[in-house]
Amino acid sequence: MADTDDVSARRGRYDRRELLRRAGVGAVSIGVAGSGFGQAFYGPLRFKGRWLKGDLSIIQWAHFVPAYDVWFDKTWAVNWGQTNDVQVKVDHILNTLLPARMAAESAAGSGHDLFFNLSPPAQFEDGVINHAEIVQEVTRKVGKIGPVAKGATYNPKTKKWFAFSDNYVPDPVVWRHDVWNGVGLAPNTWDNVRKAAPKLKAAGHPLGIGQSAELDSNMALMSFLMCFGAYVQDEHHRVTIKTKKAVEAVNFMADIYKKGETDEIFGWDPAGNNNFLYSGRGSLILNAIS
């Protein structure tokens, strides 16, 4: 379904979208277009006297802190639903299953109203609503959207907000001091990481910088590219990845792999580096607060 900001043209979809806009519901999420929102939305008042009504379905990852899911499902969703006369249903799946599930729901043109993802879902832009109204409402309430959030969810060519991001998380170096002290170095520069790599591997504690088709590996690659002055695109949104600097970055990563890593890094999912460190073998990974 083509997106439109003309209220008169929204028909059944308008109520779902207006609910989200007024309530300022947000996260790293997309609203699926063309899913018969209007037909599925209307229902009997559950909480008399409220100005919104209906059902809202949400899907998000099973959080690495289980207590968060309990709070979200049993406290936040219940309280927000009672305040706005909405029955909120929340489903949780493993973060590794999110991309395939989002692709399936987008292809079907149906599914959850809010889809919380862990990375920008730019490839689904044509299948989701324009989130501009949500951005405007949140901006009105709490201030301007940050540059990282905007860059991740706004397409300057199409002028469309294809998602809304409520946060971003850094992916810093996580390292074992005891193991690194044994080789007399600290990972305060990438040159030091390369120098320490063979010593750490020989000691039975290889590095764990992922190089597979998953989020942490992708962020590691982006970091190395930027360290060498290479970028996927420039400030004018032109693709600039085909440069000598990009090749130098990849060669540097390959050198670290050969000297200090094992083949397992090529088959990791998002939990791979976590488990590698938990096992006691890993000496360094790139990971967020989990």
Explained architecture:
This protein is an alpha/beta fold. The chain folds into two domains: 7-161, D-Maltodextrin-Binding Protein, domain 2 (3-Layer(aba) Sandwich), CATH 3.40.190; 173-286, Periplasmic binding protein-like II (D-Maltodextrin-Binding Protein, domain 2, 3-Layer(aba) Sandwich), CATH 3.40.190. The chain contains eleven helices and nine strands. It has a four-stranded mixed sheet with strand order 1-4-2-3, with helices on one face. Helix 1 (13-23) runs parallel beside helix 5 (132-142), helix 8 (190-202) runs parallel beside helix 10 (244-260) and helix 9 crosses helix 10. It is globular. The two termini are 38 Å apart. Mean pLDDT is 84; it is low at 1-14, 22-28 and 31-45.
Largest sheet: 4 strands, mixed
Second rung of CATH, namely the architecture of the largest domain: 3-Layer(aba) Sandwich
CATH top-level class of the largest domain: Alpha Beta
**Alpha plus pi helix count:** 11
**In one word, what is the shape?**
globular
Strand content: 5-15%
Q: Overall pLDDT, averaged? A: 84
Low-confidence sequence ranges: 1-14, 22-28, 31-45
- Strand segment count: 9
Radius of gyration: 22 Å
Helix/strand/pairing category: alpha/beta
CATH fold-level assignment of the largest domain: D-Maltodextrin-Binding Protein, domain 2
Give the CA-CA distance, first to last residue: 38 Å
- Summed up, the domain count is 2
Spatially, the strands of the biggest sheet line up as: 1-4-2-3
Considering DSSP H and I runs of 4 or more, what fraction of the residues is helical? 40-55%
Provide the succession of SSEs. Answer: HEHEHEHEHHEEEHHEHHHE
